[in-house]
Design goal:
Blueprint: H1 3-30, H2 52-57, E1 64-71, E2 74-82, H3 88-105, E3 111-120, E4 125-135, H4 142-148, H5 157-162, E5 165-167, H6 169-176
Parallel strand pairs: 2-3
Antiparallel strand pairs: 1-2, 3-4, 4-5
Length: 178
């Protein structure tokens, strides 16, 4: 093969790639993403260090906020259970409220690390009950409704997989299979 022919072919392919690839990238971003959860309306709040406490306090939780953290799109939130008068449906609704806030009321939360912890005042300790690793756009909107209405039954595998929820042995023993 002629050396000039080879150089010409490489230059032609390079120029064509420079023109075609940006157009393909533009097409890919305009395609609908299945399972993506969009924020409602056009005025999604932007969560940041300066408004984190106020925005979290505006969520109508029935559980106490134990700790909260914010780091570049990652919101971590611990909700605390105290006493024995809580039912699974209450905890599921609190989880659903946190998920709704993170992904439907804000525009910049990409991941929510959510934990439900039980506080033992006698032993001055905390024990994990439920944990979720929820990410924007990786679950269908119907899952949020399913979590809100789950009742006092074990979570379905669909919910646990969609929201990456793990259950501790304490949760199973105290709340689900007492």
């Amino acid at each position: 093969m002629n050396r000039g022919w080879l150089i010409g072919t490489v230059m032609l392919v390079t120029a064509a790639s420079a023109v075609i690839l940006p157009q393909l990238a533009g097409l890919a971003s305009s395609l609908p993403q299945h399972g993506a959860v969009e924020t409602f309306g056009t005025s999604a709040s932007v969560l940041g260090d300066d408004n984190l406490v106020d925005m979290i306090n505006s969520i109508p939780f029935t559980l106490t906020v134990d700790s909260v953290g914010w780091d570049n799109g990652l919101l971590s939130l611990d909700l605390k259970v105290t006493g024995n008068d809580h039912e699974p449906r209450e905890l599921y609704r609190n989880m659903a409220s946190a998920i709704s806030f993170a992904f439907q009321e804000t525009g910049n939360v990409e991941q929510l690390l959510l934990r439900i912890v039980a506080e033992d005042k006698w032993l001055d300790s905390r024990r994990l009950l439920l944990a979720g690793d929820i990410r924007r756009g990786e679950w269908p909107p119907q899952l949020l409704y399913a979590l809100q209405t789950a009742g006092n039954v074990p979570l379905s595998d669909r919910l646990k997989t969609g929201f990456r929820i793990s259950e501790s042995e304490l949760w199973k023993k105290q709340f689900i299979y007492p």
